[in-house]
């Protein structure tokens, strides 16, 4: 079963913490242990796992990617969002977390982020859990 | 079961659309729903999911990676393809798509690309589908 | 079942070859075929698959990432390791290899690396194998 969550971004580039939503989906799936796959069906967004404590970490990742792959680069794609496509490929369109006792197995400092690179937009993220035998 | 497809690249850096091949493998696997894993057994190539409509998107991703990680950088690896190894790690050696009704669940603009970073070469991509219980 | 391996890094940035450990875990799992997931529960480290033959490849990847995302950049995160968080997101917190005949299906030149970006530290990598039906 695929569960889809909606994500509304409010900025051009923004990492949105979706850890609580993923925890809820895993809890409601009633699966003891397995692998939880998260998938972004967009081409200018991604999903990553990184620090959840200090918001400056997210800010620094976004700023560094902007510096190296600026919005106004030497691009041919006419829509003006080539930087977002580049960042999407570098971040990746999917991520996994392991599930144990009906909960995601995250490290102490880890949070799950939907990575918006061409917002603000209404976005989706799809989740499927592969259960252990 | 692992299904292997051959990919023949014709340029040094090239994103090759393999969406049709992946669709065919999924259809022939006769699996209703699950997770389709794609794996690149090379160290100077990768796999990514990005826009399929405008070829300039692919061109812009490749050009941006070339600008930031140039072929002629300050490298020690004697084979002269360190940039390709770097791009391979940043792209990733695997990707997933969900399977539903015997088809990949892709977003409207998504296509699956084999990313050649040190071509032209004869390459392989391996596919395994984990079926839902 | 999740199997956890310990990784002790000895440098600030270091790719540590964990191929032998992963092979051992797969062999001991007594699973004929499936997908082996590797997961890093840290926010300044990652996991990648790249060339195992020439150590200069690892050196060149690390040096290129350091050049583009330097330790002393224009960052706000007070801990001084923003570059490591950036590299972690670009590398990814997970990787997969297929399993066949109780062994990982790796390409000729492929090795599996734990990517330390903020060492030296005692680290962990978690492994779960999803068995084919």
**What are the segments of chain A in which pLDDT stays under 50 over at least 5 consecutive residues?**
none
Query: What's the overall geometry of chain A?
Result: elongated
Report the CATH architecture of chain A: Sandwich
**CATH homologous superfamily descriptor of chain A:** YjbQ-like
Largest sheet of chain A: 5 strands, antiparallel
Total domain modules of chain A: 1
Total E-strand runs of chain A: 8
Q: Name the average pLDDT of chain A.
A: 97
The percentage helix of chain A is 25-40%
Radius of gyration of chain A: 15 Å
What oligomerization state is this entry in? Answer: homotrimer
**Termini separation of chain A:** 16 Å
Strand/helix succession of chain A: EEHEEHHEEEE
Verbal overview:
The first copy, chain A, is of the alpha+beta class and 133 residues long. Chain A has one domain (2-131): YjbQ-like (Jelly Rolls), CATH 2.60.120. Chain A is built from 3 helices and 8 strands. A 5-stranded antiparallel β-sheet of chain A has the order 1-8-3-5-6, covered by helices on one side. In chain A, strands 2-7-4 form a 3-stranded antiparallel β-sheet, sandwiched between helices. Chain A is elongated. Chain A binds chain B through residues 1-2, 37, 39-43, 68-69, 73-79, 82-83, 85-86, 88-90, 92-94, 126, 128, 130-131, and chain B through 33-35, 48-51, 54, 56-57, 59-61, 63-65, 67-68, 90-92, 95-98, 100, 105-110, 130, 132-133.
């Amino acid at each position: 079963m695929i569960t889809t969550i909606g994500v509304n971004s409010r900025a051009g580039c923004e990492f949105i913490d979706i850890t609580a939503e993923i925890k809820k989906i895993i809890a409601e799936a009633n699966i003891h242990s397995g692998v939880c796959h998260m998938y972004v069906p967009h081409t200018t967004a991604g999903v990553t796992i990184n620090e959840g404590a200090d918001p400056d970490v997210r800010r620094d990742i976004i700023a560094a990617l902007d510096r190296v792959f600026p919005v106004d680069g030497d691009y041919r794609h006419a829509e003006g969002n080539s930087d977002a496509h580049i960042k999407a490929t570098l971040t990746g369109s999917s991520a996994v977390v392991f599930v144990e006792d009906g909960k995601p197995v995250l490290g102490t400092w880890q949070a799950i982020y939907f990575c918006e690179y061409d917002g603000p937009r209404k976005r989706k993220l799809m989740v499927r859990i592969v259960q252990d035998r």
